[in-house]
Design a protein that fits this description.
By secondary structure, the chain is mainly alpha-helical. The chain contains one helix and no strands.
Length: about 70
């Protein structure tokens, strides 16, 4: 994290391991624009796990299709 005193999650490197039985694309390195909401990643993961949810928090509204 660039400034841990602010409890900011940008920039925060993330790693996803495992394939979730083919529901998660592997073997790739992705870099998203600065200020991409972390909750978009969380939204993607829970949707791929079969949870029917359209958003997480206030800013997690766009699943990441590349994952």
């Amino acid at each position: 994290m660039s400034n841990s005193d602010r409890h900011n999650h940008s920039p925060l490197p993330m790693t996803i391991l495992g394939g979730a039985n083919g529901k998660v694309k592997g073997g790739q390195h992705l870099k998203y624009p600065d200020q991409t909401p972390l909750s978009n990643l969380l939204l993607t993961v829970v949707q791929r796990a079969g949870v029917e949810v359209s958003k997480i928090g206030d800013d997690g509204t766009k699943p990441l299709s590349e994952i």
